[in-house]
Amino acid sequence: MCGRFTSITSPAEVASFFSAEEPNPNLFGNFAPNYNVAPTTRIMAIANDQLGTRRVGLFQWGLIPSWAKVLPTSQPLINARSETAHEKPSFRESLPHRRCLIAVDGFFEWRTVGLAETKPPVTKQPVYVTRRDGHLLALAGLWATWRDTSDPSPSPWLHSCCILTTSANATMSPIHDRMPVILESRDWSAWLNTGSTSQPATSMAEIVKLMKPADASILSATPIGTAVNSIRNNSADLLLPVI
């Protein structure tokens, strides 16, 4: 799974990297680097609009299905298993119609270690995973919109998203048995194409082929300190490697 990540790159740089339209300053005027992004945070994701134009938006991390009667109070849907998303009620509408790319600088995972392996001794070693080339990671995601229909006054739409996961590759398997679906730039257009006035949607057969473990050689996994365990800690120091 993927339960924590970093969002350091500015919205303008994210838009440039993903060849998206310039981001709306009203959405991102208060942007600050986040070194410890936790569930329910509003995060940057890239999706196509109805005309097929690629845009950067803000989405709450933890997908809320459009049919939900109330906002969930616990266990947000931050991940969806790629193998079963097509059959799960919470995700099966988003998979063909609402796909996105979640832009992260890196993500955290925790590896179980023996007490003798680390000093001071711990049982869970945080690991920071990034691309070896230093570029942003494009995580495959799903998104949805929700509004409180019980509110007599029109309430605003809430946009939310989740990260798709797959089986771990050779870099990740010593750390965890799952990992995010990571897409290369050659696959972004196909993934984001859910159909527009000028282009038919990418077939689900092709989408299924994209939801596979990334090449292990593109990733670097660096052990870091346990300060990242607490979401109250949020600074660049969290990313310092431990010996």
Automatic annotation (TrEMBL):
A GO MF label: single-stranded DNA binding
UniProt keyword annotations, A-Z: Covalent protein-DNA linkage, DNA damage, DNA-binding, Hydrolase, Lyase, Protease
Keyword Transmembrane attributed: no
Keyword Zinc attributed: no
An annotated GO BP: proteolysis
PANTHER family named in the record: ABASIC SITE PROCESSING PROTEIN HMCES, DC12-RELATED
Family: Belongs to the SOS response-associated peptidase family.
Protein name: Unannotated protein
Organism whose genome encodes this protein: freshwater metagenome
Lineage of origin: unclassified sequences, metagenomes, ecological metagenomes
